[in-house]
Structures are given as structure tokens and as C-alpha cells.
Amino acid sequence: MNTVVEVFHQSSKLEREQIWAPSKPYIPSIRTEFSLLSWPGYVGRDWNSGGTILIGANGNSTENKTGAEEEYSERDRCHMDLINRFRKGPNRDTLMSLMEFEKRDIQTWSLWATLLKTIERLDEDLDRVCILNVIPFSTVSSPPLNTHCWSNSVRLHLIPLISVLQPSRIVWIGKSAQKGAYSGGFRNFDGEQFVVSRQRNLTWDQRLQNLP
Question: Against a cut of 0.90, is the pTM above it?
Fold first, then answer.
């Protein structure tokens, strides 16, 4: 049986061509170097099977209209270095080093307020949950439903991770995440499933109303 280290390593080694056809890899023109790396996800240090996984659709990247070479911050370079170290030397130490970075980085995301409100409503904390994307690569926008990128992501990334992590509850961050996963063939999850709205014109109570 695969371990958490092994399944995260498997996802980190994915190439964009495995998700999109080689003739159309859907690579954003900005942050190209980072966008070539698969983001395996985040697993809290106190994770136990039977826990909660929060799942988004895909990482976001903004289209660069100028054509200028993208500049990376020291933090970006550190992130890429940690991912590459884990890819080259998968073990508990390199995974935990990457996850400690991810824990801090997640709290800088534009999505962080939604994740935090969700985690608090469920009486969880960041050390006890997992956070994944259906598609493990950043894209300019979510690809159309029922396309190969969703089915390839579900088959090669999402299902292997969920099979090893064995959550009892999935919280989809936005309807597009759930719809994308299901259009890609995600089925047969026996636990609870909830959807958190990402509509900013709603109150937090309205956005979180489907949670227990």
C-alpha cells in the first residue's frame, strides 16, 4: 500500500503533458517555470485518516500580456526549490519541509479567508486537514468541463491521493471544483461531501450554509 510520502511524490512528479495533450499543454505565459511544476497538495502534520480534505479546482495564474520574462521572488524560488528537493529525494523529512512552507504560503492566498472560515466552521485547524486541487497545475482559468485535463487529473492525481489519505469528509471549495472532478469521473466516495460557495456577494453564513 502506498504511503503518504509515496503518493505525494507520485503527484509531484506529474508532467503537464500527462494532464493536457502535448500539442496543447495550456501553459500560462506568466510564472511559466513554476507552472511546469505539479503542486501535490498540502497535508497537515497532525493529519489522520478519517479527517477532512478541502478541494479546489486548480491553482490560478494571471496571463502576462506584456510578454516580459516573469521575475520570481526569493519566496517563489524557495518554494520551487523545496518542491524539486522532494521530487528528487522523497522521504518524510523533505515532505515535511515542503509542507511547513505550504502551511505558511496557504495563508497568503487570495482564497485563504474562505479556507479559514471553512476550517473554523468545522472546528478543525490547518494542522489536521488536507488541501488539494483537482488539477495539480496552475492555469489562467478553469478548463472546460468534460475535457481530458479533468479526467487525467482525477485518475493520476486526485483518486490516488484520496485512496491513501482516506478522508471521511470532502469539502469542495466552489462548485467548479466539484463539477470538474465529477466531469472527470470522480465517483464512489462513501464519506460526506459539502460545497462552500465562492460567491463574494454572499455573506459568510450564506457561503458556508451547506456545512454541518
Answer: yes
The DSSP bridge partners found for residue 55 are 132, 172
Contact by Cβ (8 Å): 150, 184: yes
Q: What is the DSSP letter of 185?
A: T
d(CA 168, CA 192): 6
* Pick from 90, 86, 70: nearest CA to 78: 86
Domain-by-domain residue ranges, the chain? 4-207
Q: Rounded to an integer, what distance in angstroms lies between the CA atom of residue 33 and that of residue 201? A: 34
**Residue 136: partners with Cβ closer than 8 Å, 6 or more residues away:** 11, 14, 19, 38, 39, 40, 41, 59, 153, 157
List C-alpha distances in Å: 63 to 66, 67, 121: 9, 9, 34
CA–CA distance, 63 with 42 (Å, rounded to integer): 25
Distance separating alpha carbons of residues 149 and 182, to the nearest angstrom: 12
Q: 126-147 in b/e burial notation, b at 16+ Cβ within 10 A?
A: bebbbbbbbbbbbbbebbeeee
**In CATH, what is the architecture of 4-207?**
3-Layer(aba) Sandwich (3.40)
Q: What is the pLDDT of residues 168-179, one digit of tens each?
A: 999 999 999 999
Decide the pairing of beta strands 169-173 and 130-139.
Answer: unpaired
Count of beta carbons in the 10 Å neighbourhood of residue 48: 10
Mean pLDDT in residue range 53-67: 70
**Which whole-number Å values give the CA distances from 66 to 29, 72, 77, 209, in the listed order?**
10, 16, 22, 42
